[in-house]
Queue: 2 jobs
Job 1
Amino acid sequence: MAEALAVCADADPTVVRGYAVCSAATPVGFFILKAAPATPHWADDDTVTLHAFRIDERQQGRGYARAALAALAERARRDWPAARQLMLAVNTRNLAALGLYLACGWCDTGGQNPGPIGPQHLLAYPLA
C-alpha cells in the first residue's frame, strides 16, 4: 500500500488518482486510476487503467470489491469523459480476481502482458 500511495503523491493528479474504498468512514481498500500519458504500454490513449486494486483481506467477501468496481467505472466516466474504456492487467494465476472481474462485466481482450511476477490477462470494461 505504501508503494501505491507514493505513486499517487508523486504523480500529476490530472492523469493519476488514488481512491479509498470505504465502509461508512472506515477504509477497507483502495485503487489507482491512470489516464494517458501515465498508462502502461498496452493501453490506448483513450483508455483509463486500473492499478493496485486491493480490498483488505479481513473485509473480503462482503461485496466491497463489486461495489468499488461499479463506482470506479462511474468515477472514470466523470473524471475522464473522453475515455472509451477501462483496462487492467491481472496475473493469470489469480483466478479469484479474474473471476470477480469477469462477473462484474469486464472482458478478456485475449492479450497478455509479461507482468512482474508472471503473465497477466488484459481485461477491458467499456465506458461509452
Job 2
Amino acid sequence: MSAEQEEFLSKYTTIMGKVWQDEAEERKLLANPKKYAIEAGLPVSPDAEVVLDRSQADGLFASAQLVDDWNSTPGRHVLHVPAAPLVDVSELDEKELETVAGGGAAAEAPVVIIACYVST
C-alpha cells in the first residue's frame, strides 16, 4: 500500500469515527458530503459529486474497496459511512475508536476493516 493510500485511509476512517461519535459531525456530513470530504482532506475532484452511502455493510470493507469506490468512477466519489458502528463508540477512547474504524492497523497491514452490524 502506498503512503498516499495510507494517508487517504487514515482521513477516511477519521471521518467515520467523528461521525459515529458526534451528532453535530453527522449533521454536517449529511448536509453536504462533498464539502465535508474536502474539509476532512480527502482528494475530491473539482467537478465530482460525493455520494454518501450510509447503508450497513453485509460484510467487512477492505481498504482496497474503500479506495476503489472513491476513485473508480470519474466524476463520482462514494463515501461509505455506515449509519452505526459494530460497538458502542461512546465507550471507546480515541485509539480504540481508530482501531474499530480501521485506521489503527493501516500502517501495519494493507487491510482496513470496518465492522458494522445490521439491526433487525
